[in-house]
TrEMBL record:
<dbReference type="InterPro" id="IPR035421">
    <property type="entry name" value="Terminase_6C"/>
</dbReference>
<keyword id="KW-1188">Viral release from host cell</keyword>
<dbReference type="Pfam" id="PF03237">
    <property type="entry name" value="Terminase_6N"/>
</dbReference>
<protein>
    <submittedName>
        <fullName>Large terminase phage packaging protein</fullName>
    </submittedName>
</protein>
<feature type="domain" description="Terminase large subunit gp17-like C-terminal">
    <location>
        <begin position="261"/>
        <end position="411"/>
    </location>
</feature>
<dbReference type="InterPro" id="IPR027417">
    <property type="entry name" value="P-loop_NTPase"/>
</dbReference>
<dbReference type="Pfam" id="PF17289">
    <property type="entry name" value="Terminase_6C"/>
</dbReference>
């Protein structure tokens, strides 16, 4: 009896004519980042590096929904992209379909039809007006950041998502630092998935990742195209992609001091509450966790701070008091923060406050140490935008994570080096 390798089994199961390919095995083989998020959302934004599996994720999501009577939309940078990538590509809708429900594409009508009655219409982002009039249950939009008119096309598409009880949209794209993407990321009801190319390494040629990282590792191009981060190409930015790529490393076994820094949110549902944990050992700083949350009441984020404080055994809380003043201290104390609480005030602009901390990164005196060995992707994006031309262009989002990090490292390494204090009991 001949045994099959894992790759041979996978190829057999997923071959279009395989007797076991009934369209229901995706949940078993898919990476976690390729599965649609749970919860209440109207738009799923998948930000991924090249080869991260985002096209397959979008196709599988739409195919699972395209049943009898369901009308869908497929939107790409051009009609050529829709057909060659989203419909007929290796991870397109025709390629992934089970042999009993394989759709056919009607070129003259730009329409994909499934045998069980589902239908999807192809549209080009080059012509936003073509979306005026049609209506849909679901839509899959690919490479949003490559669209000629991203904001206008997205607006026209959403006006057509009005069929059924819960119309939904999936957007898959390699991110670029455009305002339309930043506004989309900040919208309520948008679920964001992030994936780097390496997260899908088992489905890529072995030399692919190694070769690209050897050529571009640590550059802005790698951060954008391989890590799937929103990277600003702006000389005014205080943090550079290569500096952040180099600062990741292992955490020490002990610290001289650990603090939790908080950039509070004044109201529920508004800006996020930035929460960053950092430690100091000697002359180096270590960023241990980005615990930032959004959509919480003041008491809710204060309780989150208390939980993070206990988890890391931190000896101090650093909290910005511009919004709330002494109320911030009272909320934190009431929530169980039984360590010294230092209130700080923003008396200068964000860039001015951040410059000394950015200098620490240039000196190689800061390490990022995520517990899971990955990256602080959202935090890195905010740092790279801080001080650049993009900061302030989009009114929808404030750099709360970056602000909290600046407060934490300023307290540890800039402002006279915060020292542990004894609390009288």
């Amino acid at each position: 009896m001949t045994s099959l390798t894992d790759d041979e089994i996978r190829a057999w199961v997923w071959h279009p004519d395989s007797p076991v390919n009934d369209g229901k095995t995706w949940g078993f083989w898919a990476n976690d980042h390729q599965k649609a998020p749970t919860g209440d959302w109207h738009s799923w934004l998948f930000l991924g590096g090249r080869g991260a599996g985002k096209t397959r994720a979008g196709a599988e999501w739409l195919a699972a929904l395209a049943g009898r009577g369901v009308r869908c939309a497929l939107i790409g940078a051009s009609l050529h992209d829709v057909r060659e990538v989203m419909i007929e590509g290796p991870s397109g809708l025709k390629s992934i379909a089970s042999r009993g429900n394989r759709p056919s594409y009607e070129v003259s009508r730009k329409r994909l039809r499934w045998p069980d009655g589902g239908v999807a219409y192809a549209y080009s982002a080059e012509d936003p007006e073509s979306l005026r009039g049609p209506q849909f249950h679901y839509a899959w939009a690919d490479e949003f950041c490559a669209w000629r008119h991203p904001a206008k096309t997205l607006a026209m598409l959403r006006m057509g998502l009005r069929l059924g009880d819960a119309p939904r949209l999936c957007l898959t794209t390699t991110p670029k630092p455009i305002r339309a993407l930043r506004n989309l990321m900040a919208e309520p009801g948008v679920a964001i998935t992030r994936a780097a190319t390496k997260d899908n390494a088992e489905n890529l040629a072995p030399a692919f990742l190694e070769g690209l990282h050897g050529l571009y590792g640590g550059t802005r191009l790698a951060a954008q195209e391989l890590d799937g981060l929103v990277v600003d190409d702006d000389n005014r930015a205080l943090w550079r992609a290569d500096d952040l790529a180099r600062c990741y490393g292992a955490r020490p076994e002990r610290f001289d001091l650990v603090v939790v820094a908080v950039d509070p949110s004044a109201t529920a549902g508004g800006d996020a509450c930035g929460i960053v944990v950092a430690g100091r050992l000697g002359e180096r700083g270590y960023v241990l966790e980005d615990a930032t949350i959004s959509g919480f009441s003041p008491l809710g984020w204060a309780q989150k701070v208390a939980s993070v404080l206990a988890e890391h055994g931190a000896q101090r809380v650093i909290a910005e008091a511009n919004q709330g003043g002494e109320m911030v201290r009272s909320l934190l104390a009431m929530s169980g923060c039984d360590v010294p609480i230092e209130l700080v005030h923003a008396r200068s602009g964000k860039r001015t406050r951040a410059e000394p901390v950015a200098a620490l990164y240039e000196q190689g005196r800061v390490s990022h140490c995520p517990a899971n060995g990955g990256r602080f992707a959202a935090l890195d994006e905010e740092l790279m935008a801080l001080g650049s031309g993009e900061l302030g262009k989009s009114p929808a989002k404030s750099p709360d994570r970056a602000d909290a990090l600046v407060w934490a490292l300023s307290a540890l390494l800039v402002n006279g080096r915060a020292e542990p204090r004894l609390r009288r009991v």
